[in-house]
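Box 3.1 A note on notation
Throughout this textbook, protein chains are presented in two layers. The first layer is the amino acid sequence; the second is a token string describing backbone geometry. Keep the layers aligned when reading.
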Amino acid sequence: MKNWTFTHTLVAIISMLGTLFLLVHLYSPEGYLKDTLKTGTLRSSNLSGKLLIAKQGSPFKDSIVVQVVHRYSSHPVEITLLDITALKSIDPFNFDAIFLIYRWEARNPPEAIQAFVKQHVKLKSKIVVLTTSWNGLEKMEGLDAITGASIGSDVSMFSDNIIKELDRLLYVEN
């Protein structure tokens, strides 16, 4: 142990920090959610309802999407999940309900959301929106929305409200 130098100590510390980082990254709930929330169609066949979920990723928003997807996993609902940037390539007339979940950015909704809603304003009765912002109050003018700050303990409350609205549009009963 007499030859243990500063270099050896530094290498040992960096190795331990690297191992710790990898363990936290691989086993964190956020890492798990990213793997479970890949975009695409979760069911495809002749089902009674079609739900489009367009989202921005974050641990809070992903937690809500997981609960929404879980709700309809035992119902005859086809779910298409995509990032909000892919909205421009979607025909919303193919869906019974549309769930938009995004973060308010610099006094505006994301451009993809703004363009989608403007282009399909006649469909706003089948759109359910959750807008998150620092103060929990921001939303698009002329569009009903559930609003709030991204507080982890509120996930169930937001999910329940969103699911109620989606159930109504998808004609799903408990």
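Strands lie at 40-41, 49-55, 77-83, 97-103, 127-132, 146-148. Residues 22-37 have pLDDT under 50 and may be disordered.
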